[in-house]
Fold this sequence. Notes:
about 190 residues, 2 domains, 3-stranded antiparallel sheet, 10 strands
Amino acid sequence: xGLTVKIxxxxxxxxQKAMKALGDxxxxxxxxxxxxxxxxxxxxxxxxxxxxxxxxxxGVTKRALKPTAASGGDLNYTLKGEGGNIAVKYFAPKExxxxxxxxxxxxxxxxxxxxxxxxxxxxxxxxFIGRGHAFYKAGGSRLPIKRAKSGVVIPDEMVKGVTxxxxxxxxxxxxxxxxxxxxxxxxxxxxx
Length: 192
């Protein structure tokens, strides 16, 4: 499962004028570098916004976001979110009387009848059975068991709320600034 969101740098008047002044090759290279700088800045901010929105740690969201940098032939920076329904393990789970309590979307929720340890509750627990994962019984008997899922899906979260707004706002505002910087750099200060 994946989602692609793009920042396109088409239509900036300043860039078109500069490309004429610099020549196509230097202008295109400056524009490519500006798009990548802005995209990387947007990726960092998006990763933080996605972590806050989903309840995940920033390290998890950074690993889930896969950028494709702009190149000479394609001046688009693409940020793709990967992953499916994320396990409860990544949301600070704790075993309780009624199941497992975790923090998806930054709000404490209980997954009824889920468990993390073996043995009788509360005194006979024997420690974690699945490296921090929460499980539930998939059938009526003791086995089989399945991992409890949170309902948080990164590609879905990327197109909602603060996360998508952060990517667009940071990316577009940074693009104008980075284009000007790269043009000044490429022209050695002649164009400002």
